[in-house]
Specification:
- The protein is of the alpha+beta class and about 150 residues long.
- The protein has 2 domains: about 30 residues; about 100 residues.
- About 45% of the residues lie in helices and about 20% in strands.
- The chain is built from 5 helices and 6 strands, in the order βββββααβααα.
- Strand 4 and strand 5 form a beta hairpin.
- The mean pLDDT is about 90.
Amino acid sequence: MRCPHCESENTKVIDTTHDSKGGIRRRRECEDCNQRFSTYERAILSTPLIIKKDNMREEFDRNKLIRGIRIACAKRPVPAAKIERLAGEVESKLQKMTKLEIPSRIIGDLVIDGLHDLDKIAYIRYAIVYLPLNNLNDILDEINRLLIVEG
C-alpha cells in the first residue's frame, strides 16, 4: 500500500477491523514519514443493471447513490459514516437480489426507508423529489403522517 502523504510503499498495518458489511478497515503507518492513514477494503460484487424511468439501463453507481443521500442530509446532523452505512446497506440488498436488472424505483424505496429511520428532515427532503408530493398539502400530509407515527 502506498502512503498518501509521501508516496512510499514502505507501510505497515497496525490494526485491522472487520465490519458487518463484509469490509475490512486497516489502520496503517508509513515507516518512512511516520504518518498514519486508514484503508477500507471490500469485495467487489456484481450489482444488477438499473432500469431508469425512460427504460434506459445503466450500471449501479455507489457514488451517485451517496451523492443523493448527502443532498437530502445537507446541513443535518447526520454523520458521514451513517450515510456510507446506508449506501452500503442499499448496495448489499441489491447484490442479494441476484437479478440481472432492477427498476430504479427499488433503489429509491430502499433509500427512503433508510432515511426514514436516519433523519426525518432528510426523509422529507428526499420524499419531496421521490414521492409524488406535488403541492404543499401533499407535503403537509406526509409531515403529519410522520408526526402521528412519532407521537
